[in-house]
């Protein structure tokens, strides 16, 4: 059984984000399958997921900064927290041969990702579209006014109401 199945619920109608998210799901499932075969294979597959996630979160964080988000916004903070946990689980497995946290995190990460994609990332996709942001060029057709306060929330229903328009 897969940790998470790619489905229409995860599609955000943002081609670059959707492709990155689909790859995340594939790598998460690959890590789960590899861990079922052996701890060494599981750790190697987990490391591949961590490397993907560094780029994945970095890409979204750069898009947010380019479109008016504060550097320390709640979406980016969540990325930092999740990535730190993913790296710690790898460290425990690698340095202490403690694979329990790695085995337990996979279903938890699948549940978190599904919620994150459908809330924070969905809001980000809408924000990018409204701003006219082109991820290929980094140009924004409707940049935030120079005197506007940076966006500190994520625009989802679960965040501070200060930026519901994001």
UniProtKB/TrEMBL annotation:
<dbReference type="InterPro" id="IPR012827">
    <property type="entry name" value="Hemerythrin_metal-bd"/>
</dbReference>
<dbReference type="Pfam" id="PF01814">
    <property type="entry name" value="Hemerythrin"/>
</dbReference>
<dbReference type="InterPro" id="IPR012312">
    <property type="entry name" value="Hemerythrin-like"/>
</dbReference>
<dbReference type="InterPro" id="IPR035938">
    <property type="entry name" value="Hemerythrin-like_sf"/>
</dbReference>
<keyword id="KW-0408">Iron</keyword>
<dbReference type="GO" id="GO:0046872">
    <property type="term" value="F:metal ion binding"/>
</dbReference>
<protein>
    <submittedName>
        <fullName>Hemerythrin</fullName>
    </submittedName>
</protein>
<feature type="domain" description="Hemerythrin-like">
    <location>
        <begin position="16"/>
        <end position="124"/>
    </location>
</feature>
<comment type="similarity">
    <text>Belongs to the hemerythrin family.</text>
</comment>
<keyword id="KW-0479">Metal-binding</keyword>
């Amino acid at each position: 059984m897969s940790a998470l199945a790619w489905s229409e619920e995860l599609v955000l109608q943002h081609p670059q984000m959707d492709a990155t998210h689909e790859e995340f799901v594939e790598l998460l499932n690959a890590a789960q399958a590899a861990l079922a075969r052996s701890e060494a294979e599981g750790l190697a597959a987990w490391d591949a997921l961590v490397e993907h996630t560094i780029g994945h979160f970095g890409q979204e964080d750069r898009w947010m900064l380019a479109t008016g988000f504060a550097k320390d916004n709640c979406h980016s903070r969540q990325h930092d927290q999740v990535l730190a946990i993913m790296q710690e689980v790898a460290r425990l497995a690698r340095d202490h041969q403690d694979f329990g946290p790695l085995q337990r995190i996979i279903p938890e990460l699948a549940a978190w990702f599904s919620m994150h994609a459908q809330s924070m990332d969905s809001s980000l996709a809408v924000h990018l579209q409204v701003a006219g942001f082109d991820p290929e060029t980094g140009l924004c057709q409707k940049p935030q006014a120079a005197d506007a306060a940076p966006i500190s929330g994520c625009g989802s229903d679960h965040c501070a109401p200060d930026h519901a328009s994001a």
